[in-house]
Structures are given as C-alpha cells and as structure tokens.
Design a protein that fits this description.
By secondary structure, the protein is an alpha/beta fold. The chain is built from twelve helices and eleven strands. The strands form two sheets. Strands 2-1-11-10-9-6-5-4-3 form a nine-stranded parallel sheet. Helix 2 crosses helix 3, helix 8 runs parallel beside helix 9 and helix 10 runs antiparallel to helix 11.
Length: 296
C-alpha cells in the first residue's frame, strides 16, 4: 500500500463554484493562502470560464494575480477552451485542467457538447500547453453514475480517460460527481482504467452524497491510487444531483489517512480552522464530520 498520499484541494474552485453564495476576491485569496499554510501542495485557484455560466468564478484572473504563491505549491485552474487557456497563461498558471464526462447526457447538459466534441475542444488546449511547458490535468465526471443515465459502466469511462491521457494529460481524475458509487464499483473502475493507463496517472474524486467517499478512497488506495481530490469543509456539490452533499471534506480525508499511518503533509488543525472560517463566510455549517466533532 502506498505510504504517501497526494491531496488536491479543490475547495476554492470546484467547491466554491457550486456554493449558492458567492464570496469576494479577498476572501477567495485568503482561503487559498490558508490552505497553503495548512500544507496543501496542490490547490485549485479558479476557473477561466464565462462568468455568465459560472458567476462564482468571476475574477479568477484577479485571484491568481494577487495570491501569495507559496514555494512548492501548485495552483491549477480550469480551462475548458483556448480562450480560457489564454487567460490562464496570462495569469501565470503552472497547471491547467480540462473537464470531460463519461456520460453523453451529462456532457451535453454540462458543457453543451458531445463527449467526442469535448475531446476535440481540449486538443488545442493540450497542444498549446505542451509547447508552453504547462502541465494539464484531465477530469472525467460521472464515472460511477449520472443523474440522467443512471449507472455508468467502466467501459464508458475507459475510452475518455485513455483519450485524455494520450493527448498529454499527466493525470486523470476520475470523478463520482453525484456520489453514488460504492467500493465494489470503485474497485472495478480502477482495475479497468489501470489496464489502459498507468495507475500512477489515476486520481480519485469522490463526492459524499451517499456517505461512500472515504470507503471509495480506501478502496482506490488498495488498488495503488495515490492522489485524491478533496474540498475543505466539504465545499461544493453537484447542481444536477438531488441531495448532493458535495465533495469529500479535506479534514475527513486527512484524519482518516493520517490516523491510519499514511502521510498527507497536511496540518489537520489548520484545516479545521480554515473550515470554520470559510463556513462562517458562507453562512453555513461545516460539511466535515471531523470539524464538527472536534469543535463540538
């Protein structure tokens, strides 16, 4: 079993973009800087998308320009197309991400194109990034279930993951976007994808809608996956999924892994403080069981 686990903190992007209440630029910057001080080495900084469609991500360029970038910390941003990529480059992003889906229905409703069309849209972004020496991370959403199509099979996920990897994505984050997957399904998925791309290029992104996220993470670890996305205080959710509670909370992941002898490099107490702070800003309770328990 892998002894060191890499965590990708997605709260400032994937988390905040799905929160109903927007926060201002200064608070976004403070959130990112708090997470860096808490030991998170990869922190999503924002998304270069149309503010018409994702108003919570407006001013990502300003956020990226003003954050105090810590040594050894990467701040990836989402870039769905060339316009987004150009914005990310102007903001001096060192890593960008493209976002596809394993479900045709979800792809059409979420990014207004088919899976094949989305991949073709990503191709020039990845080619430009290669020339610029910028790393590209690929996301595949709805890998275990879709709000429109129901259960998703590994056979639907594998070709998308392979296409992104072969284009040049250094890592493919497999996302259980609506949080319906179980450990049994997670194991089958990881095994299938790892037959086609290196397991070292696979990451897990689990939502906790049905309380399965930590179990799915541990199952993926048993299959030698060593990178997982998480969101401080469980920020975010999926607007397409009924009752979606959001991303697995960073504090819960760190507690489970560190107490079990694995290393994440994160400071749990600092994460809990950050969880309480951002929850107050959003006017909501923390979405982390660990934070609630530690502060009861």
């Amino acid at each position: 079993m892998t002894q060191t686990i890499n965590l990708v903190e997605v709260g400032p992007r994937d988390g905040l973009q799905n929160e109903k209440q927007a926060i201002d630029v200064a608070d976004k910057i403070e959130l990112i800087e708090r997470l860096a001080r808490a030991g998170m080495k990869t922190i999503e900084g924002g998304a270069f998308v149309s503010p018409k469609w994702v108003p919570q991500m407006a001013a990502s360029d300003e956020v990226m320009a003003k954050i105090d970038r810590a040594n050894g910390v990467s701040y990836p941003v989402l870039t769905p197309n060339m316009k987004g990529y150009e914005g990310a480059r102007a903001a001096k992003a060192d890593t960008v991400a493209v976002f596809g889906a394993a479900s045709e229905s979800f792809s059409r409703r979420n990014i207004n194109c088919s899976i094949e069309e989305s991949l073709e849209r990503f191709r020039p972004v990845i080619e430009a990034a290669k020339q610029d020496g910028v790393r590209v991370r690929g996301y595949v959403s709805c890998v275990l279930g879709c709000p429109y199509e129901g259960k998703i099979s590994p056979a639907q996920v594998v070709p998308v993951a392979v296409a992104l990897y072969e284009m040049g994505c250094y890592e493919i984050s497999l996302g259980d976007t609506i949080g319906v997957g179980t450990p049994h399904e997670t194991r089958a998925l990881i095994k299938a994808v790892a037959q086609e791309i290196p397991v070292t290029a696979i990451a897990g992104h689990f939502h906790d809608t049905y309380g399965q996220a930590l179990a799915n993470i541990w199952t993926a670890i048993e299959e030698n996956v060593a990178t997982f996305d998480c969101s401080v205080s469980g920020l975010g959710g999926c607007p397409y999924a009924k009752g979606a509670s959001g991303n697995v909370a960073s504090e819960d992941v760190v507690y489970s892994l560190e107490r079990s002898g694995l290393k994440t490099g994160a400071d749990l107490d600092a994460l809990i403080e950050t969880s309480l702070w951002i929850s107050e800003k959003l006017g909501r309770k923390p979405g982390s069981k660990v934070t609630l328990a530690k502060t009861a």
